[in-house]
Amino acid sequence: MAGEITETGELYSSYVGLVYMFNLIVGTGALTMPKAFATAGWLVSLVLLVFLGFMSFVTTTFVIEAMAAANAQLRWKRMENLKEEEDDDSSTASDSDVLIRDNYERAEKRPILSVQKRGSPNPFEITDRVEMGQMASMFFNKVGVNLFYFCIIVYLYGDLAIYAAAVPFSLMQVTCSAAGNDSCGVEADTKYNDTDRCWGPLRRVDAYRIYLAIFTLLLGPFTFFDVQKTKYLQILTSLMRWIAFAVMIVLALVRIGHGQGEGHPPLADFSGVRNLFGVCVYSFMCQHSLPSLVTPVSSKRHLTRLVFLDYLLILAFYGLLSFTAIFCFRGDSLMDMYTLNFARCDVVRLAAVRFFLGLFPVFTISTNFPIIAVTLRNNWKTLFHREGGTYPWVVDRVVFPTITLVPPVLVAFCTHDLESLIPESHTVSSFCVSPGVERGYTSGSGNPPISNPLTKLTTSLE
């Protein structure tokens, strides 16, 4: 059932958890940050980035606090149930027999080396991974639970719409030019319109929609099934992501070092703050997967310090990526997907590198799309689920997958403007992860997760 308590998984050290969290936060959302920086101005962007990073850290601590409260409540309920069982047994057995049997059973369930340890455990210790739906039912009333699922569904629809638009858009930009096919893809100082020719009589918008149709036909059917065992696929895409980020930063630094930097970003332009806000919120979202990250950590003694260190590293990385981009390229030449700026012959001479960076979003996003689609489908099922009831086969296997897949594809069909899609879809979800709300619930993920909005490398490694 969605949102219940799931297995913790294999334990790992706090430093491994730090790496997992870094991997979770720094994803494809960072590719839209350079253009947002150039639009809003470097000083305003830096201030807003630091502020939203701090707010994300604060809400992360609230989530961890809520996880501890949930574990304490579950532990208290177990103690009450155990006491009731002991009271029932006392009618047929003496107190000494119950005490001996209880001590024996407890010793049998504990690890050998811990049997001799004395002292009561910390009731707020996070040992059970409580899924998002379970947390909502523990702390919210019926209205709150429904609002919770509404926020998650909006967030997931936004993700799917962005993914459905980003893949065809990248393919269109790499394979099309104003004159037709061009191995260099995006040329310098060239502005393309959707009505420009791509292949013969086909326009660029036609090519985009063809790619969208192929994308939907290839990945859409996964919505009607379950996605499991994506560990090695996620490892591969994670490696590709970090290779791509490193190559882009190095190439930008080399161009700036050789005096080829074209960027002269303004100090502040408040007209771009709205877009920057949405991009930064998207780039710092990790709270939805914290239970799957934090619960398996073997020692949580210095967890808050490590999380704070993680956020400092992420801020440094975002700043390095964005500042090298805005000083390397002119603001009006920065693409919505930053990787497409390196599909130019004057920037990268090696064709293999150009195609790798230009098609990088295609590889990484395509692996996440089925997982998020299955997650959204299962959230719909949980929202309308009634205790003891079952869905007809048509509703379960056809209706829910259809209402999951069709809306984001329609949005992607109507627009491929990623700069507007990201702020619109994630401004709503930012209120769902505000400090006041996150004290009431957290989320987790399995493999595949039922109510986890975003599954990445961390959750798949368990």
Automatic annotation (TrEMBL):
Keywords: Glycoprotein, Membrane, Transmembrane, Transmembrane helix. It is found in: Membrane. Pfam families: Aa_trans. One of its GO terms (cellular component) is membrane. It comes from the Eukaryota. Residues 20-66, 134-422 form the Amino acid transporter transmembrane domain. It is a multi-pass membrane protein. InterPro entries: AA_transpt_TM. Residues 443-462 are annotated as: Disordered. The keyword Chloroplast does not apply. The chain crosses the membrane at residues 12-31, 43-70, 147-166, 208-227, 239-256, 306-327, 347-376. Belongs to the TMEM104 family. This is Transmembrane protein 104. It comes from Piliocolobus tephrosceles (Ugandan red Colobus). The gene is TMEM104.
